[in-house]
Amino acid sequence: MRRMSGFNCQVLIDEYEGTITQIQLRATTMKTYDGRVVYIPNQEVFQASIINNTASPRRRSSVMVGIDYGEDLSGAIAVINKVLESSTCTLACTSASSSPKLSAKADRVISSCNKREYKR
After folding, report:
1. Residue 21: partners with Cβ closer than 8 Å, 6 or more residues away
2. Which residues partner with 50 through β-bridges?
3. Which one, 32, 53, 77, 106, has the greatest CB density within 10 A?
4. What's the CATH number where 20 sits?
5. Are residues 103 and 85 located together in one domain of the fold?
6. For 25-41, what is each residue's pLDDT tens digit?
7. Strands lying side by side in the sheet with 109-119
8. What residues make up the domain containing 75?
9. Where are the beta strands (DSSP E) in 43-120?
């Protein structure tokens, strides 16, 4: 339980992701992002790897965007960058790895992955 800083932490425990609402003697209560309440036995919590999403003020996010082959890829990337730059939540790119990259080609679309850090 030391890996969580307390109530209202947003965590991922096994297949459950949400906000910790209560820690009791036998179970930890979590409210998932879709509104469900999950009771996880503390034995499972103690043995699980826990990802604490609120431990740091910065996070990195990846978004997959499908772009048709007939569309202008460089134009689409320019639009993505413009939206990210105008957002008050995203941080400035600090490296080339933050810019959109072509990641896969499917039958009808190109997948572009954009990774960007943002602050809570």
Report:
1. 7, 8, 29, 30, 31, 37
2. 13
3. 77
4. 2.30.30.60
5. yes
6. 999 999 999 999 999 99
7. 58-68, 109-119, 101-105
8. 58-119
9. 50-52, 58-68, 101-105, 109-119
